[in-house]
Amino acid sequence: MKKIATILFFFIYSNYSFAFIDGQILAGKRWYTTEENTTSKKDLSGTQTTFSTHVDPIPFVPVSFGLNWSQVVVEKSDFISSVSNASTEQLGIEVSGWFPLILFTPYVKINYPVYSKFTVKNNDENNTTDDGKLSGLHVNIGVKYDLIPFVSILVEAGKAFEESDQILDSKKMTSTFLGAGLAVKI
Question: What are the residue ranges spanned by the domains of the chain?
Fold first, then answer.
């Protein structure tokens, strides 16, 4: 009986290592700090929604690979009055690793965007739109808790080191993310 209970406990609290595919949805807040020069910084913030899917190709090895799509809608109050709204979209390749044998499972994700779009809609007479790109590395850490086998709650925080072209005066920026979500494993 003890062996069965031990095996069942191991399966329930380490089921992520038995899953072949997982899907995640996260929502939270992202804060950007642009580095225009040594004396001037601009802060932006927005609401982020992220969808990701991972494939764990090797059973019992807690590493997975996948795609991540995220969208950030930047808050209007962070811009001058000539901007009506701004948003970013990014599609990235992601590698994830975790330690599956404890109740609250810590994990780390590294994401590199392969597609990115930063859009600013101007509030002028022509309603012009400016498009640009963001590039850089995203590193997130988090913790997940299994509600029931194969369904988890996630809490995640991350840092991104990005560069922009065309839209912002700054070429370099860092951003911080804090969010929560759900994961479903198959």
Answer: 2-185
**Residue 80 tokens, joined:** 């001058």
Q: What is the mean pLDDT of residues 120-147?
A: 83
CA distance 132 to 180: 28
Q: Does CATH number 2.40.160.20 belong to domain 2-185?
A: yes
Three-state SS at 125: coil
pTM of the model: 0.80
Percent helix / strand / coil, the chain, rounded to 5: 10, 65, 25
What tens digit of pLDDT does each residue of 15-72 get? Answer: 444 568 989 999 999 998 876 655 556 788 899 999 999 999 887 788 999 999 999 9
Structure tokens at 121: 């809609």
Distance CA 111, CA 89 (A): 14
Closest by alpha carbon to 53, among 109, 133, 15? 109
